[in-house]
Batch of 2 targets.
Target 1
Amino acid sequence: MTTTPDRWTRSDNPYDWMAREQDPRQSLANPVGEKATLVNYLRHYRLTLELKCEGLDAEQLARRSVPPSTMSLLGLVRHMAQVENHWFERVLKQQPAVEQIYDTPEDNDGDFNGAVADPAVVAEAWATWRDRVASSDAWLDALPEEDLGATVTHRGEQSPIRDILVHMIEEYARHLGHADLLREAVDGRVGQ
């Protein structure tokens, strides 16, 4: 039987692990305007990643899904730090000299391959992800809404900022589907 942390009140809905009024994502409800909507979806999914991983130890976070896959919740955290770094630092901020975080020429899946059951690796992954998210949010906060249609160069093509933000939302949404299954395999927790 799955237990819930003390700070949560169990929801009446069997697919929610906390009562709706305790869900930190509720503060993101009802955005006004296109930029606020895109930013709120992105922040909602980032919070969901944290919630999906909350309360797990290093071994649980690093637990692989189904062989031969190297996917784990810890790998997803590391991967999303790398995604934030690439799209915001390298593409949107146009700083191509910013290095990849985990991937190397020898291992282009370093984000997942290096996700091992070590508390220091877990702490570093969360610190890196939070640092990249804070940097991304600072850039987003300063972006005027009318600039969503402005373009940046990526791989020799012009990409609207709006499209890159939608891609970031898509990237989180896709991987949160993986996180749902990974978390359920660890301790049976589903939903939310």
Note: Residues 47-187 form a domain with the Four Helix Bundle (Hemerythrin (Met), subunit A) fold (CATH 1.20.120.450).
Target 2
Amino acid sequence: MTSSATGGRVAVVEDDRIVRDTVVDILQEGGFSALACESAGALAKLMGDVNPPELIILDLQLPDRDGLAVAGSIRSSSDIPIIMLTGRGSDVDRIVGLEIGADDYMVKPFNPRELLARVKAVLRRKGPGQLSPVPAETQRRGYRFLGFSLDLDGRKLTDPSGVPVSLTVSEFDLLAALVEARGRVLSRNQLLDLMRRRNDDVFDRTIDVLILRLRRKIEPSPRNPRFIRTERGLGYVFDAQVEPLDGS
């Protein structure tokens, strides 16, 4: 299902036809091209398309595969944003979803305006990517630390070998907040505010999960972190020498 949309392509993976059609209608009214998928298999075909979706709204209970397994499979090879939409509302389910790599989590029943707002927020944080490249002569904002390069405008992180590090939208936002506040201890609430993730469904454990995910990707020894340190009872601090990118 598509429309004359300008907001981007969003896959709606939901086996309940009424819920699926409702979400599709909400997205289309909001200017998005909504792609309905009734199963994990249908999503797999869509992901192999020449023009795959830019965001996935994913139900956890699918007829052919568990939604968490689907999210984990997608995240192993892609940084496409994922919003989980499910009837499971426990903190355990949310934490597991975040650990796998989801960018946001909504519980049914949901407010249509809130769903649309979250889709827009996740895509906005993801950035325009290759659709609107920054001219080469434009100065880029960003930082270098321990050989890594964090490009804020391009929303990219490269490791000391120049290899891109795949980060989800939330992981990038958290790393940027930590690096920009280097040397200063930030509480979980402060980090949520800096990430613009403050809402009723976000909880402190969100930050803890994202910190673990970041450490696995950029720390030499995630169990003994060198530069994303925990200050017990206070929060987290980025403890490394940081230099601006050329021209920033």
Note: The first strand starts at residue 9 and ends at 13.
